[in-house]
Each structure stands twice: as C-alpha cells, then as structure tokens.
Amino acid sequence: MESILDKVKNELNKVNLDEETKQAIEQKINELEKNKLNIMITGATGSGKSSTINALFNEEVAQVGQGVDPETMTIKKYELDNIILWDTPGLGDSPEQDKYYAKNIVELLNKKDDSGKALVDLVLVVVDGSAKDMRTSFELINEVIIPNISDKNRILVAINQCDMAMKGRGWDNNLNIPKEDLIQFLDEKVESVKKRIYESTGVEIKPIYYSALYKYNISKLLCYIIKSTPDEKRIIYVDKINKNPEVWKNNDNLMNYNYEIQNQMKGSLTSALDFAAKGALAGATVGTLVPVIGPIVGAGVGAVLGFIGGLFDI
C-alpha cells in the first residue's frame, strides 16, 4: 500500500518547482520516512490497554506483537513499521511484581536513542473508569511516570471504560454514547483525577475519557495523543491508524476531532517541508512556500485519511 509520504512525493512531481527546492523537499521527506515513534502504554490490570491499542491502530496488533523485549523481560514490544508500542504488564496484582514492573518502566523511560534524546516519545496511562479504587493508577502516575520524564507534556492520562463508570447506568446502548447524567459524572471524574495528580506532584495533566469497547471518543483520544507527539513525527500515524470508519464516528461533540487530526498532521508536515525548502534557498529573498506545499500535503493526507467516516473535507 502506498504510504502518505509516497503520495506527497507523487503530488510534488505534479507542481512546477525549481529543481533545488524540489530536491530539498524530497530530502526532507526521506528523513521523515526514517523517523521512529516510541509510545509507552501502561496502566493497572483490567484498564483495557490491549483494546485501546487495537481500537487506535489495528484489530490484530495486540495479538501479533513481537514478543517480550529481551532487555526488560516484562514489557511487550509491538513494531508497526515506524511506530513502536511498548506495552507494560498490568499493575496492581502483586506489590512485589509491581516493584519489578516499575523498575523496568523506569529503565525504559531513561533510555536514550542514537541522538541522545529520550527513546520514549510519550506515555499513555490507561485508567479503568469503572474502578472505585484508583490507588494503583495514581501510584504509577505520581511515583513512577512523572519523576522520570523531564517534559511533562509527554504524559497522557486517558480514562477507559467510561461506559461502566456508573456500573453501566447512564450509557445509551442504542447510540453507544453517554447520557447527560453520565457525562456529568465523567466530567467530575476527570477533574478529580486532575486534582489528585496536581496535589501530589504539582504537575497539571488534563485527562480525557473514552470507551475502547464501544469506540466512543477514539478520535478524541487520537487527537490527544497527536498533540503530545513531537511535531515531525505526527505524520507517522497516518498509515497505521485503524481503517474502520466505525471506530471514528461517536465523540462528545465538543469539537470536530477528525478535522483536528487532519489539520495537525497536515500542518506539521507542511511546516517541515516548507522549512526544508526555504533552507535550500538560504540567502535568497523568498516568502513562505506554504501556499504551494500545503495543497500538495493536503492532497496526500486527504487521500489516506478519507476513510475516517468521510468527515475530512479540507
């Protein structure tokens, strides 16, 4: 299957650009193709990490992982070409096991890539929205994750199983969305989690809620993840996210997350290519090439992401 960057290359060949500028853009595309995106997904036992992975990326991902990473012996490593998912064991079953798992999580968070930067680009902590006792999740966030990440914007907290937050009450089983009383309960839960993390660590994290089972707010979750992803790595998601339109339909309607997903991907790629093109013309008096590059990128991104409920029309 043709990748998003291949499509952009094809679109690039259709426009009239000088050879030096075109070569600079193509070189930048080649650099972007080599980027790796590392995501750690962690949480308490039963929080629904595997179902979250499958909803976001592919139905078979969590079943066909690459096994156990030999350096950690507990963290599963799934490689989806340029996306690498580090799936930690569920915590909360045994204090002794949790200490061992926490040690391995800390070791991975402190690993560096070849350029000396943190290997893990972001951490997604999946919280069980149906659980009353969230002690394990708070210990993981406050005592393991936050102290071992310098950039706190790389920490995401997502409350899964929002459909069961009130033991199933308040969930519309026909529309697969929460009713007003459940929405209010979930909003309060988000604020409570945010407050407890801030009071313990001084770090402000705004959680979101979703249901991997019923595919509710999956677009919001992906949008949340993309915004915390390093800018030049955002385009990596395009080729690997779940291609089932049903996954992306039901959201809280606070904003058009599908539109925002495409805007984020299109904007970051346009900026990267525009910067490369202007770099090739250093010393010359040139304006931005965004009016030229933007439609090129838009055509490629739109073609690949059009499956998301047909909601992209920009």
Strand content: 5-15%
Strand order of the largest sheet: 2-3-1-4-5-8
Largest sheet: 6 strands, mixed
CATH class of the largest domain: Alpha Beta
Structural class: alpha/beta
| Helix count, DSSP H or I runs of 4 or more residues | 9
InterPro entries: GTPase_Era-like, Immunity-related_GTPase-like, P-loop_NTPase
GO molecular function: GTP binding; ribosomal small subunit binding; rRNA binding
Coiled coil: 15-42
Organism: Clostridium carboxidivorans P7
Architecture overview:
With 314 residues, the protein is α/β, with parallel strands linked by helices. It has 2 domains: 1-34 and 255-314, no CATH class; 36-248, P-loop containing nucleotide triphosphate hydrolases (Rossmann fold, 3-Layer(aba) Sandwich). 42% of the residues lie in helices and 11% in strands. It has helices spanning 4-12, 19-34, 49-56, 95-109, 135-145, 180-201, 218-227, 257-280, 290-305; strands spanning 37-43, 76-80, 83-87, 122-128, 155-160, 171-172, 177-178, 208-209. The strands form 2 sheets. Strands 2-3-1-4-5-8 form a 6-stranded mixed β-sheet, with helices on both faces. A two-stranded antiparallel sheet has the order 6-7. Strand 2 and strand 3 form a beta hairpin. Helix 7 (218-227) runs parallel beside helix 8 (257-280). The radius of gyration is 21 Å and the shape is globular. It starts with a helix and ends in a 9-residue tail after the last helix. Mean pLDDT is 86; it is low at 64-72 and 310-314.
